[in-house]
């Protein structure tokens, strides 16, 4: 009888266990009922929506140079703030074969837009652009273009003119020094505008030019500035990427005019002002055009002070108020779109009329400028 009872208990326990397992399986089946496919599709759609544009930048000098590449990189940082863009840059890329390699490597990584920011990148950009027709290329300061390559620059000569006004007013020796990179139209045009501004304030002043044939070489730039100081120049300006000429001026106890960015921190006792770039507005406008499909190749953009791309840094405390007033009045005219910097009559170094009275130099003439105005001491070679 006891055996029968034990068997009955065992069989009852097994029945209960089977019932429990059965009860446990049912909820699992109910949890698996919702379809997983819609969740996967939603995640894929979210990834597509969040995919960012890829924008690349190629720089000729270090971004920490406080000069040209630094100003471009500030523009890149403004693009990043848009939130839908991933950016990459390569700095200190020599012009020529090295730049072609760097541009091509960037293109192979499926960038949507590539900015090549130095004059010597022009031919490499055109060449690589033909290999990657689906990518938008923007080349700075050149003149060649194609179906997917446009060029761009800013009217920095407007800023040069204003800084020249300051320099001309502050000089006591009537000799201004200018440390220049290469004798190309961009640089020559800037020297001419600077000279015209200086002579507006002081008709007796002359601008002495020394070429370094480099964009970025702090030691060479400083030596060039010292040679101008030895010649009696008491204001040193530059078309170079480092603040070395500013430092040379301060060490000599004279004034200086910077370029690319506000260089006052490098020579606070010497720095009168700087001709500065503000690439942010232009780069944001370009990125937005590529994103919404309105960007076009084969174009040339030359942005001005009215566009906010070029400006001058705040004038130093050593600049008299009456000088500041005149410079700011001239700036207001440029911001309003009234650019008469290269309005005739303007003579060349030989004293010949190069721009007749009653005419204003056309953009094509300015972009191809290879001659110096009256008042410049130096050669265009």
How does the SSE layout of this entry go?
Blueprint: H1 2-31, H2 37-50, E1 53-58, H3 68-80, E2 85-90, H4 97-107, E3 113-116, H5 122-131, E4 136-140, E5 149-154, H6 156-170, E6 175-180, H7 185-201, E7 206-211, H8 218-230, E8 235-238, H9 244-252, E9 255-260, E10 271-277, H10 280-292, E11 300-303, E12 310-312, H11 321-335, E13 346-347, E14 353-355, H12 363-367, E15 376-377
Parallel strand pairs: 1-2, 1-3, 3-4, 4-5, 5-11, 6-7, 6-8, 7-15, 8-9, 9-10
Antiparallel strand pairs: 10-12, 13-14
Helix pairs in contact: 3-10, 4-5, 6-7, 6-11, 8-9
Structure, described:
With about 375 residues, the protein is α/β, with parallel strands linked by helices. The protein has two domains: about 130 residues, Rossmann fold; about 190 residues, Rossmann fold (3-Layer(aba) Sandwich). The protein is built from twelve helices and 15 strands. The strands form three sheets. Strands 12-10-9-8-6-7-15 form a seven-stranded mixed β-sheet, with helices on both faces. Strands 2-1-3-4-5-11 form a six-stranded parallel β-sheet, with helices on both faces. It has a two-stranded antiparallel sheet with strand order 13-14. Helix 6 runs antiparallel to helix 11. The longest helix is centred in the N-terminal third of the chain and has 30 residues. The protein starts with a helix and ends with a strand.
């Amino acid at each position: 009888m006891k055996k029968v009872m034990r068997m009955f208990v065992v069989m009852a326990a097994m029945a209960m266990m089977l019932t429990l397992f059965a009860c446990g399986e049912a909820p699992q089946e109910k949890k698996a009922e919702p379809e997983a496919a819609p969740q996967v599709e939603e995640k894929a759609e979210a990834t597509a929506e969040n995919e960012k544009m890829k924008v690349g930048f190629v720089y000729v000098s270090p971004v920490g140079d406080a000069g040209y590449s630094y100003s471009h990189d500030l523009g890149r940082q403004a693009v990043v703030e848009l939130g839908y863009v991933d950016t990459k840059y390569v700095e200190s890329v020599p012009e020529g074969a090295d730049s072609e390699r760097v541009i091509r490597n960037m293109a192979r990584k499926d960038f949507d837009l590539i900015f090549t920011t130095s004059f010597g990148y022009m031919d490499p950009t055109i060449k690589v652009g033909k290999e990657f027709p689906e990518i938008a290329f923007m080349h700075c300061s050149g003149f060649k273009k194609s179906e997917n390559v446009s060029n761009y620059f800013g009217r920095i000569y407007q800023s040069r003119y204003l800084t020249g006004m300051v320099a001309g007013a502050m000089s006591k020796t009537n000799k201004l020094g200018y440390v220049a990179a290469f004798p190309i139209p961009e640089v020559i045009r800037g020297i001419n505008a600077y000279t015209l501004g200086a002579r507006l304030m002081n008709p007796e002043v002359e601008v002495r030019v020394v070429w370094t044939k480099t964009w970025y070489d702090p030691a060479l730039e400083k030596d060039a500035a010292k040679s101008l100081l030895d010649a009696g120049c008491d204001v040193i300006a530059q078309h170079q990427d480092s603040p070395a000429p500013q430092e040379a001026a301060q060490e000599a106890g004279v004034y200086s005019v910077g370029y690319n960015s506000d260089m006052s921190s490098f020579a606070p006792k010497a720095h009168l002002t700087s001709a500065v770039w503000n690439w942010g507005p232009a780069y944001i406008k370009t990125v937005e055009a590529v994103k919404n499909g309105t960007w076009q190749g084969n174009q040339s953009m030359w942005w001005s002070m009215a566009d906010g791309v070029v400006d001058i840094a705040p004038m130093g405390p050593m600049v008299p108020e009456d000088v500041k007033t005149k410079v700011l009045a001239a700036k207001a005219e440029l911001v309003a779109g009234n650019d008469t910097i290269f309005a005739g009559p303007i003579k060349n170094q030989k004293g010949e009329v190069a721009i007749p009275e009653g005419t204003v130099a056309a953009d094509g003439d300015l972009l191809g400028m290879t001659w110096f105005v009256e008042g410049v001491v130096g050669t265009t070679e």
